UniProtKB/TrEMBL annotation, chain A:
Lineage of origin: Bacteria, Pseudomonadati, Bacteroidota, Cytophagia, Cytophagales
Keyword Transport recorded: yes
Key words, A-Z: ATP-binding, Nucleotide-binding, Transport
A molecular-function term among this protein's GO annotations: ATP binding
Range of residues in the leader sequence: none
UniProt-recorded name of the protein: ABC transporter ATP-binding protein
Domain ABC transporter residues, every copy: 6-232
Domain of life: Bacteria
Family matches, as SUPFAM superfamilies: P-loop containing nucleoside triphosphate hydrolases
Entry keyword annotation includes ATP-binding: yes
């Protein structure tokens, strides 16, 4: 059985093509299987976020192809990509990016509504997700009433709401204190272990790197190392 | 549903900015509705004045009479016609008139006029002529050759109550005939043009001049309700096929045209107000979109499609726009209801000008209930047009670029 979730072939993203081309991502091959807990690391400007954007279908590569769950997203129209992202990919952003006018519950429910899931199933899933992130008592809180860590946990719940094939997280712990970062990592790790949810995240955070099953290092848009690291208990 | 909630909450993210737009819409609507209320009040008064003091709901003439005002074309079989009218339940009152086109001459000059030979008692019911008298005591019983003249004509001819004038016209055989009359009263209606053109004498006096004793050229009918005009016209026309039976709209097509023109004008005014407001709404929405670039990018990244994003911008614009509707409407309703009761005096704006168009100087605005639906449609169209540019800006955002902001 093919467990491949992400398959990127020779992908490059080039800026300033007309003058002096700058390779944000340079001829990258990446293969991620279901249940991986992978960290993309590298110095600032190494292309981590660009690579995540390409894999997430937010941006298109100038060269190469990206196959997600067997579907080539580089051949999709913008509208098909929107629909594909909604059904297949969960996003967690560095600065939480919750919708400020919606409550925590509504932020998560919003994605399910976009998917056309009926009210009963939405309610059920919301309770499961908020139990998982440990914020069942914060359902009606607005993002401004939550701490950074709590907001990022809601963002994880939102990413999981659509039952995606994998979750892309761009520096998820960058804006969190140690305690909050550890809590978030525990939740993500638990989801990975228990539900085999695939995570691919960019990070500078050593705590994240330490807990990743696999660490890919990018420098100047190229993968310079790709190694499984020792999983350390929390 | 969530998009609806988001749109509603989004407009309150910047309360003062939203309030300014909502109040602008309210103010614009208030102004537009007040214009409609004033127009409606003016037109209602004009129609009322036309029906109840000038032409009545219906008039009956011999078929060819109004072409040349030939005195010999008086109504045939008048007694049976009157009998039939009396038996028509829709008819509240009627008056017979003899009409002649001719000349009024005095020592100071002459003027072309229409002589209306009337029965004062009938006329007081049908056209309230007595109420329009501003000088003199009107027709005195037993006195012959008395005349009522309009204020404007009296002023033009420098005539006063008690002065003598000469009326000249042709009789039914085409002979020139004249009669000396004494002014028994000066009247003033809300239509100075009409006042200048019409004089009233007693019907017997005019009939003597025309040689048509006991006859009438015209029957003016007043109905119990304005709405009965068309059905009563049809009913009478079926009974008297050879006679010309006209409604007030046919008798005064310029008034009917004015009502339609005023209706259109009031919509144009509202359109202009909302068009100006649209720029304010566009500016506000554009600011709201630009401030939320990152958030919009994030929603697009998560899977919000273009139609949903457009709906969000459209709903926000609609909420902002229709938010002012109840305020605009209720304030316009309050003021127009107050003014409907106490009147708005425009005498200082030019009494003569108002009267020359047939309007009284005190206007009683009427809240335009019948135009609410039309105005709301205008507002919604404005919202839709106003949201287009900001929505296009939002739709042009690329999630990856928007997320960097």
């Amino acid at each position: 059985m093919d467990n491949t979730v992400i398959d990127a072939h020779n992908i490059s993203k080039i800026y300033n093509k007309e003058n002096i081309p700058v390779y944000a991502v340079n001829n990258v091959h990446l293969h991620v299987e279901k249940g991986e807990f992978t960290a993309l690391v590298g110095p600032s400007g190494s292309g981590k976020t660009t690579l995540l954007n390409l894999i997430g279908g937010l941006d298109l590569p100038d060269e190469g192809s990206i196959t997600i769950n067997g579907e080539d997203i580089t051949r999709m129209s913008p509208n098909e990509l929107i629909d594909f992202r909604l059904k297949n990919i969960g996003f967690v952003f560095q600065s939480f990016n919750l919708i400020p006018v919606l409550t925590a519950k509504e932020n998560v429910e919003f994605i399910m509504q976009l998917q056309g899931i009926d009210l009963g199933k939405r309610e059920q899933r919301i309770h499961v997700l908020f139990d998982q992130i440990g914020l069942s008592d914060k359902l009606e809180s607005r993002p401004s009433q939550l701490s950074g860590g709590q907001q990022q946990r809601v963002a994880v719940a939102r990413a999981l709401a659509s039952k995606p094939k994998f979750i892309l997280a761009d520096e998820p712990t960058a804006n969190l204190d140690s305690q909050s970062a550890n809590n978030l990592l525990d939740i993500m790790y638990k989801l990975n272990q228990e539900e085999h949810m695939t995570f691919l995240f960019s990070t500078h955070d050593q705590r994240v790197i330490d807990r990743a099953k696999r660490v890919i290092t990018l420098v100047d848009g190229r993968i310079v190392s790709d190694t499984a690291s020792q999983i350390l208990p929390a | 549903m969530m998009i609806l909630i988001m749109a509603w909450r989004n407009i309150w993210r910047n309360k003062s900015r939203s309030f300014v737009i909502i109040l602008s819409v309210a103010l614009g609507l208030f102004a537009g509705i007040m214009v409609q209320a004033l127009y409606k009040g003016m037109m209602r008064d004009r129609i009322k004045s036309l029906i109840y003091t000038e032409v009545g709901h219906l008039q009956i003439h011999e078929n060819e009479f109004k072409k040349e005002y030939e005195p010999s074309l008086y109504l045939q079989q008048l007694p049976s016609l009157i009998q039939q009218i009396k038996q028509t339940p829709q008819v509240k009152a009627f008056a017979t008139r003899s009409i002649a086109q001719g000349m009024l001459a005095s020592t100071t000059g002459s003027s072309g006029i229409q002589m209306n030979g009337i029965n004062p008692e009938q006329e007081n019911v049908v056209s309230a002529l007595k109420n329009k008298l501003i000088a003199g005591s009107g027709f005195q019983n037993q006195k012959k050759n008395q005349l009522l003249i309009g204020k404007k004509l009296a002023k033009k001819m420098k005539l006063e109550v008690g002065n003598k004038i000469v009326l000249t016209c042709t009789d039914q055989e085409g002979n020139m005939v004249s009669g000396a009359y004494r002014i028994a009263g000066i009247f003033q209606s809300s239509n100075s043009m009409w006042d200048e053109r019409n004089v009233f004498v007693q019907q017997d006096d005019l009939n003597d001049m025309l040689g048509i004793a006991g006859e009438s050229h015209e029957i003016v009918i007043l109905l119990h309700q304005d709405e009965l005009t068309l059905t009563t016209q049809q009913k009478l026309q079926n009974q008297f096929k050879k006679l010309e039976i006209e409604t007030w709209q046919e008798l005064s097509p310029e008034t009917d045209l004015m009502v339609s023109a005023v209706d259109i004008t009031s919509y144009i005014i509202i359109g202009i107000i909302l068009f100006a407001l649209a720029f304010g709404i566009i500016n506000t929405m554009l600011m709201a979109i630009l401030e939320r670039t990152r958030e919009i990018g994030m929603m697009m990244a998560l899977g919000m499609n273009k139609l949903q994003l457009f709906s969000l911008v459209l709903l926000e614009t609609t909420f902002l726009t229709i938010g002012g509707v109840p305020i605009g409407y209720s304030s316009a309703w309050l003021l127009s209801t107050y003014l409907h009761k106490y009147g708005l005096n425009w005498e200082s704006m030019g009494e003569e000008m108002m009267r020359s168009f047939g309007f009284s100087t005190t206007i009683y605005p009427e809240f335009p209930t019948d135009k609410i639906a039309g105005t709301i449609i205008f507002v919604l169209i404005t919202a839709f047009i106003s949201c287009l540019y900001p929505a296009i800006k939002a739709l042009q955002l690329q999630p990856v670029e928007a997320l960097r902001k």
